[in-house]
Amino acid sequence: MSATSVTGTSHERHGRYPQALTVEDFRRNLAAVQARIDAACRRVGRDPAGVRLLPVSKTKPEASLRLAHAAGCRLLGENKVQEAHHKWEAMQDLGDLRWSVIGHLQTNKAKLVARFASEFQALDSLRLAETLDRRLQLEGRTLDVFVQVNTSEEASKYGLAPDDVAAFIRELPRFPALRVRGLMTLALFSDDTERVRACFVRLRGLRDRLRQDAPDGIGLEELSMGMSGDFEIAIEEGATVVRVGQAIFGARDTPDSHYWPDAGDAVSAP
Ligand SMILES: *Cc1c(COP(=O)(O)O)cnc(C)c1O
């Protein structure tokens, strides 16, 4: 796939995503992203039904999330658990809105996630797995989880080193309230498409190897990879979940470096 594809990254275009201000804006943006997903699937002979779009609403106000809901979004991704929890509390009236926590979680905030999240995509320690499992059992809930892998090996990115994932996965059957779905990664923030693609290729290779002798009950079907600037490349390399914020909601005021300390450097590097 890599050799024939010309799909590029577009991190440099983040500032150009216009704000979505009406339900119509959300419908149009969702349709445009879905069309790009479909096209990326066609390029590599995949069925678009095998790619789930997770809209990411972090930093956006409640009013904006309500418009997204009105446009059909039923699962929203949030990077920070307290922000997600506040939004969950404020939007209880919607009834059918579910939450995916996609950012690093400190163990002392596991009880919040256990209370309201449907999905958690940044599992990266056994201590966190243990605390989440205990809290979930107290709540009588289960949680879909993705193991976060640091495929770019940047010190600032969270996630397990690729070499540590196999041993980590072997421990997970101890935590029955965690439903392990697959792996998640953030690629390098770079305009160098091939280095970005290499992160996705790495996650897929890891998943394919681990799947061969995954413990009973541990599903490793899912690959959560790709965001506004690089989701088409991720799909070409096997993504089953793409986490897209700005291309749906509009540009964020907060720079990416607020979330990933060296992101700005990687993007502006020559
Ligand atoms: C913010 C975020 C995204 C989405 O990024 P966009 O550039 O808004 O598409 C994806 N994944 C994670 C973990 C995030 O924190």
From TrEMBL:
Organism of provenance: Stenotrophomonas nitritireducens
The UniProt record lists the keyword tRNA-binding: no
Family membership noted in the UniProt record: Belongs to the pyridoxal phosphate-binding protein YggS/PROSC family.
SUPFAM superfamilies: PLP-binding barrel
Superkingdom, taxonomy of origin: Bacteria
Classification via HAMAP family: PLP_homeostasis
Swiss-Prot/TrEMBL keywords: Pyridoxal phosphate
Keyword Signal (UniProt): no
Protein name, UniProt field: Pyridoxal phosphate homeostasis protein
InterPro entries: Ala_racemase_N, PLP-binding_barrel, PyrdxlP_homeostasis
N6-(pyridoxal phosphate)lysine modification, residue list: K58
CDD domains hit by this protein: PLPDE_III_YBL036c_like
Residues of the Alanine racemase N-terminal domain: 29-252
